[in-house]
Amino acid sequence: MPRLFLSKKAFSLVELIITIIVLAIVGIPLSLLLSGHVLGTLRCEELALADNLARFEMEVLYNMPYEKIESAHFLRYQGYDLDAVRTVEYVHGSGLSEESTKKIIVEMRKPGSPAALARYATYLSKNIQYPY
């Protein structure tokens, strides 16, 4: 009867523990680096989306009649998980005057958050002639 061949090249328990420790020393910083990179990428995507939606809202305002531009709050703007806040105030004249200027601020925020991810401001005027 042939004898079973037993390999004498097995790992000892000490070698196995040292290998696990070395892998942990190398693996933990790499996993932290990778998770930081993923979180940074997600944050950049969110900021880019907020910036693009704020610019889109500004374009909508530029194409609106002056009299209809008012303060507003839009939940889940354009179907995205961001809220748009439009603040309009008169800096010259009023709604009843012939000449007036409005300061318009558009902010994109996470729902329920007071901090703006993107913020744009512009001024629009009605019946004001500027000498050039």
Give me the secondary-structure category. Answer: alpha+beta
Strand content: 25-35%
Number of strands: 4
Please report the first level of CATH classification, the CATH class.
Alpha Beta
Mean pLDDT: 89
Estimated helix fraction: 25-40%
The CATH architecture designation is 2-Layer Sandwich
Give the number of domains: 1
As a whole number of angstroms, the C-alpha radius of gyration is 30 Å
- Based on Cα principal axes, name the global outline: rod-shaped
Q: Give the H and E element order.
A: HEEEE
Largest sheet: 4 strands, antiparallel
Task: Describe the fold and architecture.
This protein has 132 residues and is an alpha+beta fold. The protein has a single domain, classed as Pantoate--beta-alanine Ligase, Chain: A,domain 2 (2-Layer Sandwich), CATH 3.30.1300. The chain is built from 1 helix and 4 strands; from the N terminus they run H-E-E-E-E. The protein has a 4-stranded antiparallel beta sheet with strand order 1-2-3-4, covered by helices on one side. A hairpin with a 6-residue loop joins strand 3 (100-109) and strand 4 (116-126). The N and C termini lie far apart (109 Å).
SSE layout and pairing:
Elements: H1 13-62, E1 72-74, E2 83-92, E3 100-109, E4 116-126
Antiparallel strand pairs: 1-2, 2-3, 3-4
Search tags:
four-stranded antiparallel beta sheet, 132 residues, alpha+beta, 1 helix, Pantoate--beta-alanine Ligase, Chain: A,domain 2, 4 strands, 38% helix, rod-shaped
Task: Put the structure in a nutshell.
The protein has 132 residues and is α+β, with helices and mostly antiparallel strands. Helix content is 38%, strand content 26%.
